[in-house]
């Protein structure tokens, strides 16, 4: 079977590790006339992110935020590796539990929930859920009276890519009043949560929020609650090149929780990373489907407009919703010392569909490919087929070394996943990006019904 005939859900297992760029080039060589956009999804990158998390913040259990990227194979892999899950709706809860994940590994981390969804959570045994106001507390009392509540605090998220504090979170005075009200209603509060904003780039926001959480948990303990859960929320960076930011945040978090939540208190600490896990694992490949040459009437300079086969209604919705500025990458054959002021547009009929308004690029031809790194967070989870145009579909790859350890994650039958000790002993150096073999032919291997696995023979 040739690679271009492999269905979208395929996982390609390679003899040695490959970069996304190398993988995309091999895929393009076999495409012929097929030029639909696609993602190269590096599953090893997700494994390495998990290893880094466990070694960087050993006291903090990650609960992957489904809303960031609800790719079924990402969920399967993280479930197998032992992560928990942050779900924000009935649909997300069902999607995770249908894979065999137990309810006690899920936090329903939406402070403002639909009543029917709360009743659904009650039916399936998801008891841990957040709230930040009295009306929500009363609603939960009516729909799920034995819920285990987590009080969400407001934070300073001014340095985050996407801010949430204008919408969610109780201030310190309100938080105390909510604890009083919960006691009056005989509702159980088990801890405190916060969210420092998606893509938070400073550690101070986490330090301040942990300190505030300690004060509120002390207040709850004095009133007779058993406050044994601290949820650090999300906001952890995941793009390539943000490793130092993550290390800085991890160091500050470790020091602050050790100071305010010493291990002998047995407080369970979790977090809700989303983009941290998937941002750098996804690289999008797009094709130039049209171009226009423009002459500046004032300077006479030549400018180019390029139209590609994915746009802001599809995979690039992160430009609108996530404040992301994607950077185009070119293969060697397209690189040149000559460059022109250029703009890049999506394929729809809408003038809003602009990915780059002005960037210096060499002259490109129709049929050339452009790839885009760090495209795993808040991209396909919000994409639509406006104008009937497809957006990037994932094609997964992983070296045989890793595949041998995690292949059970992709079995069809639902199961209760566990932490595989052999995976946790791996480190980032175990998956180099050296290319030592010819990746062809790629032939299918019998596996799960819903996942095609392709190996090098």
Automatic annotation (TrEMBL):
The modification N6-(pyridoxal phosphate)lysine is found at residue 67. It catalyses: L-ornithine + H(+) = putrescine + CO2. PROSITE patterns: ODR_DC_2_1 (PS00878). The lineage of its organism: Eukaryota, Viridiplantae, Streptophyta, Embryophyta, Tracheophyta. Keywords: Lyase, Pyridoxal phosphate. The keyword Transmembrane does not apply. Its EC number is 4.1.1.17. Its cofactor is pyridoxal 5'-phosphate. It comes from the Eukaryota. Pathway: Amine and polyamine biosynthesis; putrescine biosynthesis via L-ornithine pathway; putrescine from L-ornithine: step 1/1. Belongs to the Orn/Lys/Arg decarboxylase class-II family. CDD domains: PLPDE_III_ODC. It is an enzyme of class 4 (lyase). Residues 44-279 form the Orn/DAP/Arg decarboxylase 2 N-terminal domain. The active site is at 349 (proton donor). The keyword Ribonucleoprotein does not apply. Gene3D superfamilies: Alanine racemase (3.20.20.10), Lyase, Ornithine Decarboxylase, Chain A, domain 1 (2.40.37.10). It comes from Hordeum vulgare subsp. vulgare. GO terms for molecular function: ornithine decarboxylase activity. This is ornithine decarboxylase.
């Amino acid at each position: 079977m040739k690679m271009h005939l492999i269905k979208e859900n395929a996982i390609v297992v390679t003899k040695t590790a490959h970069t996304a760029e190398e993988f995309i080039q091999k895929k393009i060589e076999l495409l012929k006339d097929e030029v639909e956009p696609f993602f190269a999804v590096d599953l090893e990158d997700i494994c390495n992110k998990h290893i880094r998390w466990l070694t960087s913040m050993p006291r903090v259990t990650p609960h992957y935020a489904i809303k960031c990227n609800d790719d079924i194979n990402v969920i399967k892999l993280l479930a197998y590796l032992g992560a928990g899950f942050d779900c924000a709706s009935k649909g997300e809860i069902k999607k995770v539990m249908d894979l065999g994940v137990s309810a006690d590994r899920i936090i329903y981390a939406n402070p403002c929930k639909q009543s029917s969804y709360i009743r659904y959570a009650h039916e399936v045994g998801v008891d841990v859920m957040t709230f930040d106001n009295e009306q929500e507390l009363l609603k939960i009392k009516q729909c799920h009276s034995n819920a285990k509540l987590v009080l969400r605090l407001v934070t300073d998220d001014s340095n985050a890519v996407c801010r949430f504090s204008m919408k969610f979170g109780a201030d310190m005075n309100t938080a105390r009043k909510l604890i009083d009200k919960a006691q009056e209603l005989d509702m159980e509060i088990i801890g405190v949560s916060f969210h420092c904003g998606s893509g938070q780039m400073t550690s101070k926001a986490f330090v301040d929020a942990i300190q505030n959480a300690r004060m509120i948990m002390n207040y709850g303990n004095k009133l007779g609650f058993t406050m044994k859960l601290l949820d650090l929320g999300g906001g952890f960076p995941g793009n390539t090149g943000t490793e130092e930011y993550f290390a800085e945040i991890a160091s500050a978090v470790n020091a602050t929780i050790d100071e305010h939540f010493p291990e002998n208190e047995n407080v369970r600490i979790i977090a809700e990373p989303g983009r941290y896990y998937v941002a750098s694992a996804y690289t999008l490949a797009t094709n130039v489907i049209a171009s226009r040459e423009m002459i500046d009437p004032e300077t006479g300079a030549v400018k180019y407009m390029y139209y590609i086969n994915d746009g802001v209604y599809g995979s690039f919705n992160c430009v609108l919703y996530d404040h992301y500025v994607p950077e185009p990458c070119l293969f060697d054959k397209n690189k040149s010392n000559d460059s022109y002021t250029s703009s890049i547009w999506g394929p729809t009929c809408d003038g809003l569909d602009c990915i780059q308004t002005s960037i210096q690029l060499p002259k490109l031809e129709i049929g050339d490919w452009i790839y885009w790194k760090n495209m795993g967070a808040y991209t396909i989870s919000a994409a639509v087929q406006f104008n009937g145009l497809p957006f990037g579909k994932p094609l997964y790859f992983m070296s045989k070394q890793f595949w041998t350890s995690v292949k059970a994650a992709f079995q069809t039958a639902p199961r209760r996943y566990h932490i595989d000790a052999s995976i946790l002993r791996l480190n980032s150096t175990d998956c180099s990006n050296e290319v030592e073999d010819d990746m062809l032919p790629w032939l299918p291997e019998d596996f799960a019904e819903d996942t095609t696995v392709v190996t090098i023979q």
